[in-house]
Write a structure and sequence with these properties.
The chain has 264 residues and is of the alpha/beta class. 39% of the residues lie in helices and 14% in strands.
Length: 264
């Protein structure tokens, strides 16, 4: 962790607006988002507000997430909602069925993750400078990647010693299922980048098991302890040296970091 946090958005200044350009997740050429716009044209303005919120250092990641949920809920399918049990629909961790495209929702969460990390002092995570699909972790890591991204995508990837990736872990109804899903996220990211050291960011905010109705109801320390224990007990010893750290974002917007020393 850095001792002095550079002001957000730092290196993300140019990256964040790209989500609204061309084929970006909220862009005019993105086929899924274009379809959503035909259903609800005001979505374009909501997306612009989302980008403005992300860029503003005075707005929090929670503010951005609230706007993202607003975009999702603006396209809720009434027919599907009618079939959702009331207790489920009122749960704070349940994402309402919506015509808002899930890939756009998930991509937007990556930017919220970046801002949450910076808010907690982790300014080492930088936007990946290439759009090559085959070799595109979510984040490069300061000091672990070429200082000048003027090489091609494959060479940049090869020269990185560490990468970082995000994953939305959602929909679990029990804390046991949540821990298992978080662990599966860790192993999946290690498998995705088999030659790299890897930091994993897990967004655990959208999980009904962390709520009692609309109210938060979970033991963060116990969940982190269970995940750490599972990594210690179940992760292949050959993989443990490559797992640099695990970050888990909970719906109270507290970011927990599990350290490599816990499983080495």
């Amino acid at each position: 962790m850095t001792t002095a946090v550079p002001q957000w958005p730092g290196e993300w200044q140019a990256e964040i607006p790209s989500i609204r350009k061309d084929n970006g997740a909220l862009g005019p050429s993105n086929s899924l988002f274009k379809k959503a716009l035909t259903i609800h044209p005001p979505l374009a303005g909501l997306a612009d507000t989302f980008v403005t919120c992300l860029l503003d250092p005075h707005d929090t990641p929670r503010d951005a997430k609230t706007l993202l949920i607003g975009m999702n809920d603006a396209l809720v399918d009434p027919a599907k909602i009618a079939n959702v049990p009331p207790a489920t629909a009122q749960n704070g961790g349940f994402r309402l069925p919506s015509a808002f495209p899930l890939p756009s929702y998930t991509a937007a969460l990556e930017y919220i993750a970046a801002k949450a990390l910076w808010e907690h002092g982790h300014t080492e995570f930088l936007p990946w400078p290439f759009d090559d699909i085959a070799l595109k972790p979510d984040f490069a890591v300061r000091g672990k990647c070429p200082a000048n991204p003027g090489v091609d995508a494959a060479e940049f990837y090869d020269l990185c010693t560490e990468v970082a990736d995000t994953l939305k872990v959602g929909g679990t109804k029990t804390t046991t299922d949540l821990v298992n899903s978080l662990y599966a996220g860790v192993t999946g990211k290690l498998a995705a980048y088999p030659t790299k050291q890897v930091a994993v960011f897990l967004d655990a905010c959208d999980n009904p098991c962390l709520y009692n109705g609309a109210a938060l109801n979970f033991n963060r320390a116990a969940l982190c302890s269970s995940l750490t224990a599972k990594i210690v007990q179940d992760l292949n010893p050959e993989l443990k040296p490559r797992l640099v750290s695990v970050f888990v974002l909970f719906p109270d917007w507290h970011l927990e970091q599990l350290h490599a020393a816990d499983w080495h």
